[in-house]
């Protein structure tokens, strides 16, 4: 089992994008709409950024997109593979305007870029990297053309792209992510077929599926999944939690709010 790649401490940087004014209008697919508290969301976003900074991650703000309700979910707009940024091709029409700002941010950092384009669609939330294996959700947002285009970019760079059907969750990473040692973790009711993963550790809560790997011993996750946090602690990990309830109401999770770059 390959570990999840973590940049060296001197290279730890993460893109973030502050919430839009109309965050509450964000798309919903699998859950009912409940009232989003804009002020609380902004406080929670600052708490998320502060948690990254406290763990030694410099945060870099992508230019805000105040009229694009889902723009805070920056993970969907650009995906990092080592030193390469791949600009996504969002599967939802209302999210297509998000990529320009994300691309400008990586361009300012001098990061080389490749693009995915229509008719291929692919959201960053459907991409889970575990060592040189890249699992890609085939979902409502990501189609076969998008997956093939990503494979075309990554195969020459030594990555293996594995397509994974996702029908019970918005994105692959709504259903599964991976611990620093490469163990894939997921909430079974959201996972079509756990056997596609080399390893699979079931977690007991829907919000316990998403972890951001901060270093090889530390993960960041939602405070809404205490049983899952306990499971990771038992495996020797230090768990940092953040309350992101207002983003969870919009089918967002802890991974969606940042993109780690090196
Ligand atoms: C959407 O439906 O696109 C947003 N409301 C939520 C996106 C969450 N992003 C992610 O899981 N990577």
TrEMBL record:
InterPro entries: DDAH-like. Substrate binds at residues 28, 70, 75-76, 95, 141, 250. Coiled coil: none annotated. The keyword Translocase does not apply. Belongs to the DDAH family. It comes from the Bacteria. GO terms for biological process: arginine metabolic process; citrulline metabolic process; positive regulation of nitric oxide biosynthetic process. This is N(G),N(G)-dimethylarginine dimethylaminohydrolase. GO terms for molecular function: amino acid binding; dimethylargininase activity. The keyword Zinc does not apply. Pfam families: ADI. Keywords: Hydrolase. The active site is at 171 (proton donor), 256 (nucleophile).
């Amino acid at each position: 089992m390959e570990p999840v790649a973590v940049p060296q401490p001197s290279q730890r940087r993460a893109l973030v994008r502050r919430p839009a004014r109309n965050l509450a209008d964000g798309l919903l697919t699998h859950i009912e709409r409940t009232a989003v508290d804009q002020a609380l969301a902004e406080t929670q976003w600052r708490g998320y950024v502060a948690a990254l900074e406290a763990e030694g991650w410099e945060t870099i703000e992508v230019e805000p997109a105040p009229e694009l309700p889902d723009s805070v979910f920056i993970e969907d707009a650009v995906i990092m593979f080592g030193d390469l940024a791949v600009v996504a091709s969002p599967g939802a029409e209302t999210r297509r305007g998000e990529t320009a700002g994300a691309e400008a941010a990586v361009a300012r950092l001098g990061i080389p870029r490749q693009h995915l384009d229509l008719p291929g669609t692919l959201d960053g939330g459907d991409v889970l990297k575990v060592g040189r294996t890249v699992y890609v959700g085939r979902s409502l947002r990501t189609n076969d053309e998008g997956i093939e285009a990503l494979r075309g970019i990554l195969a020459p760079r030594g990555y293996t792209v594995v397509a994974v059907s996702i029908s019970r969750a918005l994105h692959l990473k709504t259903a599964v992510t991976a611990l620093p040692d490469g163990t894939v973790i997921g909430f079974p009711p959201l996972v079509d077929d756990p056997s596609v993963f080399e390893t699979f550790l079931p977690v007991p809560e829907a919000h316990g599926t998403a972890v951001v790997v901060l270093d090889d011993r530390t993960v960041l996750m939602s405070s809404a999944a205490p049983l899952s946090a306990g499971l990771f602690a038992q495996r020797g990990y230090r768990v940092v939690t953040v309350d992101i309830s207002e983003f969870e109401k919009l089918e967002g999770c802890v991974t969606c709010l940042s993109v780690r770059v090196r």
